[in-house]
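User: I'm designing a mutation panel for Large ribosomal subunit protein bL21 and want to avoid disrupting the core. Could you give me a predicted structure to guide residue selection? Please restate the sequence first so the numbering is unambiguous.

Assistant: Good idea. Sequence first, for numbering, then the predicted structure tokens:
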Amino acid sequence: MVYAIVRAGGRQEKVEVGTVLTIDRVQADDKGAVELPALLLVDGDKVTSKAEDLAKVTVTAEVVEDLRGPKINIQHFKNKTGYRRRLGHRSELTRVKITGIK
């Protein structure tokens, strides 16, 4: 069983080949591929966490789709002053599928 812990959008995700995950928006190359930096690699009983060994590890993914997250409503209210403010936010996201860990 081979899996890796990668940094994706400020978070750490556990990935295996075939895993589909949603991360912050990333730009893919012209073939639609993305490389994610590995922080830890587990290959059976062998665990790799040294920086010089992880520099040789590549975790590749293909972009499935670009999407936007759910709407987050932000409301500010101050009592007795008539101050009300509504804001909204939707995150730009990318859904990727892990194609290889080498």
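For picking mutation sites, this is relevant: The mean pLDDT is 96. Residues 2-101 form one domain.
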